[in-house]
Amino acid sequence: MQLIDTHVHLNFSVFQEDLLALRSRWQEAGVVRLVHSCVQPSEFAAIAAIADQFPEVAFAVGLHPLDADQWQPDMGAEILAKAESDPRVVAIGELGLDFFKADNQEWQKEVLHAQLEIAHKLQKPIIVHCRDAAPALREVLIEFFQTHGEVNGVMHCWGGTPEETEWFLDLGFYISFSGIVTFKNAHQVHASAQMVPIDRLLVETDCPFLAPVPHRGKRNEPAYVRSVAEAIAKLRGVALETLAQETTANACRLFQLEI
Q1: pTM of the entire structure?
Q2: 127-161: b or e for each residue (b if 16 or more CB lie within 10 Å)?
Q3: DSSP letter string, 199-232
Q4: pLDDT at 172
Q5: Which parts of the chain have pLDDT scores under 70?
Q6: Which of 54, 120, 150, 206: CA 20 to 30 A from 109?
Q7: In angstroms, what CA-CA distances link 1 with 29, 171, 228, 247?
């Protein structure tokens, strides 16, 4: 059985001491590829070094919406150059909108739009972070699609309502679920995980955050994506092997990965 963890942050300091042990565990769990997300372009060198060490790691480059205030006039050119400089860059992001505690909503939209232009130019998918901002994100994407053309991608660590899930499915996006889907009271996430078409479904850890049951409260790691897949398979009433096969094929298709 093969799995792909489509969202990790292995460059974070909590992993510095035991990356080799982590790799042994994700290999034992059947994880054959990983997509390393990027919070800000300054991480690029560290992420590339991890991919040098572990050839199964592909990665993205972009600016997270919670870091939107760091956007500078030349940052778009920097992201574009970095994305073009390394064939292991398979996506732009993570980008998006986060209105949970934001007082810079309009600026976040501007930064998002600039990164959408990069993704469209390079014909690369986007990794989308969306928190308390689904209506606004939908508006930005529809406007961009109408004026520039479509961009594909994934709604990562998805926690929206089934109605919001349908919005982004209608826009052509994949939906990725994290350890939240294993939480007992995550009812709307469960409902979304049941309704997403099998050819648009992805799994992730978003490690080191949001460790799934039975590891909840601990540091998350790529091997635990198997627990995410098990939970979704149970919700959908399919075999784990079937769920793994489909989500792995989806990740390969979206990110142009080979295994």
Answers
A1: 0.97
A2: bbbbbebbebbbebbeebeeeeeebbbbbbbbbbe
A3: GGEEE---BTS-PPTTSTTSPP-GGGHHHHHHHH
A4: 98
A5: none
A6: 206
A7: 9, 31, 14, 11
